[in-house]
Design goal:
The chain has 578 residues and is of the alpha+beta class. The chain is 18% helix and 29% strand. The protein has an eight-stranded parallel barrel with strand order 22-23-25-26-27-28-33-34, surrounded by four helices. The chain has a five-stranded antiparallel beta sheet with strand order 3-4-13-7-10, with no helix packed on it. Strands 16, 17, 19, 20 and 21 form a five-stranded antiparallel beta sheet that branches. Helix 7 runs parallel beside helix 9.
């Protein structure tokens, strides 16, 4: 079972490298003798001078740290693959092919043979450790056999860069020696062919995200495709929100230790107020109900008329009031189309009753999951996911461009999908299950504020585990949402969101949830994310986000209970961001 979990987080190492037919080792910098990870694109891992198998350097990585490259191979050809390894358990293999592993205390050679398929022109070599097992070392890696494709086929282009207008996306990439021209692909579809190192794909709709790869070609054939790059055309409908917003949940339907706060008593500092919670009559009914907290639980609850008047007063101040569905206890599984339709009808009825500005999706627990074999977040097949997407699209169409849509998933359902994806098997089938919903709704999504609390350690794009409660957790988790990330072993990459769509969530106080972060650490995280300052040694893969939307908290009630520390600390700081 542990081997299966480790395989699910396979560390891909691939290099596409044009070689003559007589070439032996197809890898570049195979022994790391450059003294760097040159030739490898690594997220985590480093080059060390000890222990080495030969030469002066070797690779060091912590359990599931990863590096990426790309190798062209000849169809129906047998190759020998090997690596010298030591330390904690380390796996060597070819994706879709054989693998082997060992955990030697001294360097030991792992080896296997791999035969390419009848039409296969590229192969992925991987090394990875064992989940939670610690550091391993690798050196003198070999992929031995004839060079890929036909002799003289160009090398793979470097990762393209992209810029966008409302109707087009322009790509550019480094020149490849020996290339006659370049082909731009979107998925399996050829979009354009050019002789230079840039191309513009036109005729696109506004506020639409597209992902492209580039291949070089000449008379000998076509290279493997570059790493993907995603871009979103401009013209997105911008919610009528402040550039940097303070977002909070209001316990409107229940009481807890923090006490009830009337709508009229919510301070003006809060830009978005999420009413917690709308919940289903049964888990699979799709019939969502919302009612104010009963007097028996909340003696100071206002009347329906006063509650509605309070909403109108907030809206007159430019605030947004949303219905939040789910929460810890509100499990919602839209397993059927009937439940989907009932969800749309019942949610719309609540929105219309109170004149709300939109919807917040706070599905937790077992509301979302992925069936075995559902491995492509771009084309999900699991009913609870497919039906939720359809329902959200229907609500968005019903209310138009002013409809505010936010989501508050836990890290387990988003960032953990970088290591484990539920439909791929080998673990909990809920991991990463929000990704298809976020992706399908990305052009209609106003704000994604992942809950950076009640979370276990999560591996970031730096290949390191990050723990909640400090600035580095918020930096690493938010950077993943901005930069995008490979999704476990599915072969697909989740494209990052626009910076104005991104906030992060944290508890308002120590009693509100695990992962409370002191205000100074929150400010360090915001300075890093918005200004690329105070990053504590972390390198932003997604770059600075001066238009980051802001902060979310659970909850307004707990903030009042603790003397408004969250509001008073963070609202002025947000206003001072660029």
């Amino acid at each position: 079972m542990r081997r299966a979990v480790a395989a699910a987080a396979a560390l891909l190492m691939a290099v596409v490298f044009a070689q003559p037919v007589s070439a032996a080792n197809l890898l570049t910098n195979a022994g790391f003798e450059s003294g760097s990870l040159s030739g490898w694109s690594c997220s985590g891992g480093s080059v060390v001078s000890s222990p080495v198998h030969s030469g002066s350097y070797a690779l060091s990585a912590s359990d599931l740290g990863k590096c990426t490259q790309t190798v062209t191979v000849r169809p129906s050809t047998t190759y020998t693959v090997s690596a010298w390894v030591r330390g904690n358990p380390v796996y060597l293999g070819v994706t879709g092919g054989p693998s082997t592993w060992a955990a030697p205390s001294a360097y030991q050679q792992l080896s296997l043979t791999f035969t390419s398929g009848a039409s296969q022109t590229s192969a992925e070599l991987y090394l990875h450790g064992w989940y939670g097992a610690g550091t391993y070392y690798a050196d003198d890696v070999v992929f031995d056999g004839p060079g890929g494709g036909n002799p003289g086929t160009p090398a793979t282009p470097g990762t393209p860069s992209a810029t966008a207008t409302a109707s087009s996306i322009t790509l550019s990439w480094p020149a490849v020696g020996g290339a006659t021209g370049y082909r731009v692909y979107e998925g399996s579809s050829l979009r354009t062919t050019v002789s230079g190192t840039s191309a513009t794909v036109g005729g696109l709709g506004a506020c639409a995200t597209h992902t492209y790869t580039v291949a070089a070609y000449n008379a000998a054939g076509e290279s493997a495709r570059s790493a993907p790059v995603s871009a979103t055309t401009t013209g997105c409908q911008q919610a009528d929100l402040p550039r940097h917003a303070l977002i909070g949940y209001l316990h409107a339907s229940f009481a807890n230790g923090s006490g009830y706060v009337r709508m009229a008593d919510v301070p003006a500092a809060w830009d978005v107020i999420n009413l917690a919670f709308g919940e289903p009559t049964t888990v699979t009914s799709g019939d969502i109900r919302f009612a104010l907290c009963p007097v028996a639980e909340c003696p100071n609850v206002e009347s329906e008329a006063d509650f509605t008047a309070g909403i109108r007063a907030k809206q007159a101040q430019g605030k947004k009031v949303l219905l939040s569905i789910g929460g810890q206890n509100g499990q919602v599984q839209l397993t059927t189309t009937a439940a989907r339709d009932k969800f749309v009808q019942s949610v719309a009825a609540i929105i219309d009753k109170y004149g709300l500005d939109g919807l917040d999706v706070d599905f937790e627990g077992h509301s979302l999951y992925l069936n075995a074999g559902d491995t492509d977040f771009r084309n999900p097949t699991t009913p609870v996911v497919v039906n939720l997407i359809a329902a959200l699209k229907s609500l968005k169409a019903r209310y138009g461009s002013d409809f505010v849509l936010t989501m508050a998933p836990e890290t387990f359902f988003v960032q953990v999908g970088h290591q484990f994806y539920g439909g791929a098997g080998g673990g909990d089938n809920r991991t990463g299950s929000y990704l298809p919903v976020i992706h399908a709704m990305r052009d209609a999504l106003t704000v994604l504020h992942v809950q950076d609390y009640n979370s276990g350690p999560v591996m970031g794009l730096d290949g390191q585990y990050h723990n909640m409660g400090g600035a580095d957790f918020h930096i690493a988790m938010t950077d993943m949402v901005k930069a995008g990330f490979p999704v476990a072993r599915t072969g697909h990459t989740f494209p990052g969101l626009r910076e104005d769509q991104i906030a992060f969530g944290l508890p308002a106080a120590v009693s509100a949830g695990n992962g409370y972060t002191p205000p100074s650490a929150v400010h360090d995280a915001l300075n890093c994310l918005a200004r690329n300052q105070s990053c504590g040694g972390y390198t932003l893969r997604g770059g600075a986000s001066p238009a980051i939307r802001g902060l979310m908290t659970w909850s307004i009630n707990w903030d009042r209970y603790y003397g408004w520390e969250f509001q008073n600390s963070h609202e002025p700081f947000l206003n001072g961001l660029p």
